[in-house]
Amino acid sequence: MLIALIAHDKPGALALRMENRQAHLAYIEATGVVAQAGPLLDAQGQMAGSLVVLDVPDMAAAQSWAANDPYAQAGLFADVQLHAWKRVIG
To answer: Residue 79's domain is classified under what CATH number?
Structure first.
């Protein structure tokens, strides 16, 4: 099941994002369930959120993955949304 995780950083949290980026990337690699991922950008081109497509068995697995992401553990996000997603192109 593909799940799109869309998260927006708290205002002014770029330093917190950068402090936790390596741990976040290591978590992605270690868990092996990320099909696609990348940062959302603000008007100045700075990282301001995340878009992650998870390939997991169910929504509960996506919720667990999201809760254990080092970014979430560090309190980076103002909000996180999880949506079932259907790949049509790509």
So the answer is: 3.30.70.1060
